[in-house]
Amino acid sequence: MRASTQGVGDRMKDRWGPARMSSLDRQNMRLRDEVSHLRIQLEDERTATHDLKDVLRSGPRVVKVKRRGGLLRLAVVGGAAYIVGTKHGRERYDQIAGWVRSMRSKLERNADEVVSELEADTSQMPGGAGRTVTPTPPDRVTLPEVMERRSGSPGTIP
């Protein structure tokens, strides 16, 4: 029985031997490909490093900047801006001031018209001939109303 067991073991070794050899050959080929790929990457990195070293060794290049008449240019541009600005600036100021004056006079006229209309309305009311009324526009809120809104209770100061 020992001989038959030994024969079976020998046959298995004979079958597994070539399968194992082919597996090792495939791993060997894969590793060779990987080594080849890594060598190519290493060469590329060495070339890039060499190029960078060459650039650094060449030294810095000095760039000359021409200085142009900075003070003279500043004086000329500043003078031109002053002259143009004062001429047009005064015209614009007068234009804005005229607009403000016209708006103020319109508001005063409108206020006078509103007061005269209210006086006319109150004089037509029965019993209101001698009474003076101070109008409060509906969009304005009086001071007590504001204080009441802020504090939540009437008559208290926040």
Account of the 3D structure:
The chain is mainly alpha-helical. The radius of gyration is 51 Å and the shape is elongated. It has three helices and no strands. The mean pLDDT is 76. Among the domains are: 1-54; 73-126.
What's the main sheet like? none
- How confident is the prediction overall: mean pLDDT? 76
Q: Roughly what fraction of the amino acids lie in strands?
A: under 5%
Order of helices and strands: HHH
For the termini, the CA-CA separation is 113 Å
SS elements, strand count: 0
* Principal-axis shape: elongated
> Uncertain regions: pLDDT < 50 for 5+ in a row?
none
Topology, element by element:
Elements: H1 2-57, H2 70-124, H3 143-151
Write a brief caption for the model:
This protein has 158 residues and is mostly helical.
List keywords for this structure.
158 residues
